[in-house]
Task: structure prediction
Amino acid sequence: MEFFVRRTLRSTQSSLIGGGRPRDVRETIKPKCVEYAGGKNSPYACGNVASVPLKCNQEEARCDSPKTASTPPTSTRKRFSLKIMGLAKCKVNVMILLSAVGMLMPALADEHEHTYTDKEEVVLWMNTVGPYHNRQETYKYFSLPFCVGTKKTISHYHETLGEALQGVELEFSGLDIKFKEEVMQTTYCEIELDKAKREAFVYAIKNHYWYQMYIDDLPIWGIVGEADENGEDYYLWTYKKLEIGYNGNRIVDVNLTSEGKVKLVPNTRIAMSYSVKWKRSDVKFEDRFDKYLDPSFFQHRIHWFSIFNSFMMVIFLVGLVSMILMRTLRKDYARYSKEEEMDDMDRDLGDEYGWKQVHGDVFRPSSHPLIFSSLIGSGCQIFSVSLIVIIVAMIEDLYTERGSMLSTAIFVYAATSPVNGYFGGSLYAKQGGRRWIKQMFIGAFLIPAMVCGTAFFINFIAIYYHASRAIPFGTMVAVCCICFFVILPLNLVGTILGRNLSGQPNFPCRVNAVPRPIPEKKWFMEPAVIVCLGGILPFGSIFIEMYFIFTSFWAYKIYYVYGFMMLVLVILCIVTVCVTIVCTYFLLNAEDYRWQWTSFLSAASTAVYVYMYSFYYYFFKTKMYGLFQTSFYFGYMAVFSTALGIMCGAVGYMGTSAFVRKIYTNVKID
Result:
């Protein structure tokens, strides 16, 4: 099946995610038309900036090609066409549907059900406008001096928490569109272009502003205007030519062609017009969102090779750890058994060394047990959230609904709060902690405080910029209510269960009253060195996948290969556990019993390498600029890296703890 629209969103990707050097927008643009339906021949195609001529109709300024993509363009020369096909079915729960019916106009019920009768109203929502290279820097569409249609205004309410947090700002366009009723070119409003409005449009055109609209939950992208070759005159696209495809009583296809280029001259009137053409389509409603996906990018041979490479690394590491440790441990057990057969004098004269010598201290509570147990509990919860969300995304196409992925993640995080309390509370009880209420509060609010603190800081910048990403006060209150009335009580339940069910310190060895002195060892056996080197292999197993994840979030790709993500998560956990076990064995063999923090931090150091990679991605794979976008990028990349580090640290500690308990259970202690 040929995908017309995949070309749309891929057409400007080289500057953001291309495999080669980012190129300027104007390097390969054709003077007569610009291809917004992308593909390999797009001047902005990901990975290869092509110079293949486009098949264009000079009279209509439309560019057609057999492939499709999923991003909007940044600049045009004469005329352009924008072809888009749409989102899969929108599943909204009963409460939201009832509130929408009661609060909004009746037409919106059909927008939710995605079924229409002939001549029934179809709403065109205007979402946001902003610079192409800064995906997260978006503003309300009517923050630019566009005019509104004559039809009565319809209000839109955020239906999910994810919608509100992601800056969705739907405003009614005022255009009169009815199902299967064609509209010839009609002027719907006029712009009185004074000096201030002209300056606003010129600034938007200079910064390659593009806008987003929705029809029946199908996103449509267009560009505000363009400049001439000398950059002296600026032009505004004034004619929106909509072509809507339908299959039965459902909308399955939306194409936009912008025409009517008008020069921006102060103290003039600019007429804005639109037309609507309906056509029958064979696209199934269930398949209408497939045209936004980009299999040629996400299922590229490099992606498959990276998964295969990581899988081979897992096999190698597991085999190496099993062979070396089992062989070494077997020798250790044999040596310790031989020492037990000696008499006291021979044992005193013997050269005792190795991990058995620290059996009286290896299960000693870690330093700062309250913080440590809270980190372990939070890491276990993050792992649970990641696993569940990926499974849900594999089953349900969450990318087809606005904000559904973020809403699902918030719901799952709140629901898995008992996991945090259980593992954190039980570990704190095993280590003899008595301030369990304080530990519960720290564990419950550790991750929310980190995320909300970063969002609060970025929100100040967003408010200063008047960006749509500024989180409304009501949304902040909703998030706080979730923390205090859902996460905290569930965390309390988990803490009580953990303390009572598995909070007893049933260690295989008795802990000595006096700590054993730690002997000197070689520099590369020091915990600090082990921590720095421990994250290299786990990062090496995931850094290719990080590129695809970064591209889907910071550029204009839609991530949908969650099977790959599940494999990478499993590989990351196995590699992390293997590395921390080896590091802990060498540390204990050097008679250093400070393995708890070492195992956690050596695995968590993966986050440092991920954050360092984010700097490389920012400077060499994107063209982001400005205080808001830079703060947004590095702020949330710090949150992502920290959460990943806490998760890896918890996984590494849990695996190492099982290993340490196992080896000391099998050795005979006097």
In short: The first strand starts at residue 33 and ends at 35. The chain is about 50% helix and 15% strand. The two ends are 72 Å apart (CA to CA).
